[in-house]
Design a protein that fits this description.
With about 240 residues, this protein is α+β, with helices and mostly antiparallel strands. About 40% of the residues lie in helices and about 20% in strands. It has a 4-stranded antiparallel β-sheet with strand order 1-2-3-4. Strands 5-6-7 form a 3-stranded antiparallel β-sheet. The chain has a two-stranded antiparallel sheet with strand order 8-9. Strand 2 and strand 3 form a beta hairpin. Helix 1 packs antiparallel against helix 2 and helix 5 runs antiparallel to helix 6. The longest helix has 26 residues.
Amino acid sequence: MPFPRRLLTEDEEVVVEIRPHWAFLGRPLVAAVAAVALAIAVMVAFSDAPPAVLYVLLVLVLVSALWLAVRLVRWFATSLVVTTTRIVQRSGVLGRTGLELRLERINQLSYHQSISDRVLRTGELHVEVGGETGVVVFDRVPRPAAVQSIITEQIDALRHRSVVPVATGAAGTRLQDVGARRGEVRITDDTPPSGVARLSRTSHGDDTVADRLLQLDELHRRGIVTDAEFAAKKAELLDRL
């Protein structure tokens, strides 16, 4: 079922909405085809087969068809949605399960495909999220490389239009000036999901050391600044007291 538009926040738009690859049907589909083929072969080869054999074949076909029908309903009720601000996975028929990942919390994206997955054009999408969530794996994603590219573009666009404090994240770089007042820093360059952007000053005047310590603590709490960068910058600020 389509993603309900009432669940979108203000100015949020759906970029792409996909269901699992048809390989999600997997074994139920193979079992149903095999059961039908077996029933046809027996009826053709043994036209005078006893009724008991026909009943057994009928049961096999019905059971495999029911298994396939249940999997089809699950496939139809499962969706992966990428919006301009988040990734949402919804699944379940009677009970519903939802998973939401905010784009600004994504640190890294990757995908994995086996040889058979490459032939079928499906695979796993791995999303590394800051905090305790760790790595979230989405299975049976159609064309995972294309989906990864779409998410990367949305992260880049989100960071360009956001007005949040961000710090340089590459090893060996220093924390830039956070700006004259908290919340008045804008992103000035492109960044991949595993990186962060350069900062530019957007206001006038100087922060007090206490203000910068508060800003630094906020960056560290959100996972934007590493422990080593936090310790080094904090020591530098404390030396000014």
